[in-house]
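Sample 1 of the test manifest.
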Amino acid sequence: VSDYLFDKAGRDPEIEQLEALLSPLAYRGAAPALPRRRPLWVPVVLAAAAAAMIAVLLWPRSWMEGPRVVRVTDIGTVALGPDTRARMIGREQVELDHGRLSARISAPPRRFSVKTRHFTVIDLGCAFELEVDREGRGKLVVTEGSVALSDGVRETVVPAGGACAFDEHGAGAPSLPQAKPQPLVEPKTPATIAPVQPKPVSIPERAAPAKRPAPAKKLAAPVRRPAKKAAPVKPAATDHGIHLEHDPLRDLRDSAPR
Amino acid sequence: MVRALSPDLIRAAARGDPRAFTELHRRYAPMVHAVLLSHLPPFDAEDQVQEVFLIAWKKLGQLDDASVIGAWLSTIARHRAADLYRRRRPTEPLGDGLPDPRVSSSDVAEAHNVLATIRSLPEAYRETLVMRLVEGMSGREIADVTGLEPGSVRINLHRGMKLLREKLGIEGKLVACE
């Protein structure tokens, strides 16, 4: 076996003849024209730019400090009080971190809301004031319309003139709006109550004598509900054998000096 | 003298350095051509060398170990040859030993016949023999660029040469012709 085949040392005429025959088929081409390759940093930069854009779109807007007035699209305004921190978390959603805001919104119900730490105040077509401390405790005062106070599970609707306090444990019972004074109007047909003649009843020994019910009086002022003719007091059986809806003895006992 | 490329130069080519890639081509193109020529007719093999290096240019960054660049390029070349063979098989049988119609020289025709005989040998022998007899690489150069052990290259060369002689029936004939 010739060494020439492996390391071309020496001579091997047979192999040399094969080399001479086949060498015209050897490769003599030039390197291909290389397409312009995108540098490695380009996709990295493109990915970073895309991520930054997504972050800007999704990231909540920055916090605002009061006092200032913020316009909420075309549905109203929110006035932030002093020492107030809030931000827009949507086109028509505000997050109130702490402080006080006053909102006047003219929009379909539930379009505008204010998120606090423990509750979300949902506009139902109204004007309201909201105050929240740094622990998330606060108070909602509704000046017009009505507002729902939601903890995500339950809602408390507070009507105009009402107020409701809330904290991390929940919302308190909303205070009812103050009744507006009604003009005094004499009823056209004064309601009278016919005197009632109590039926004779048998009174046990220890029982105090039953007092006649007070005679019906003329209503001095209009009442909220339409006046009705008072029905005769019907005595009802009690432990003592009789029960009066109006117990004169108890009145006496309560009013007696001790 | 064809020697394997340094890992630094291969990494530079992977980063997109055109000069490093040109050097990569200069050193490995004969080996790639030999692999292709072991499977395809000469006029196809030359075209496919360009394709193999374009694929390498795009995918070199995915090569983790620079020391296997030769084996990596050989694999790409074999896949290219197989793809081309699959695409053409229905209408254009390859490896039939027919001379390239673009050439008329009797020597070249004889070369094509010898090459067709080499292509009929087992793959390990035919690729090594083409590198040695067509591309003119020594056994050590073949070992360098393919990553094979020099001893394995030597065995492949001698066993392949023995088979080739038997198939060609040229023991002593070529020398006698001179």
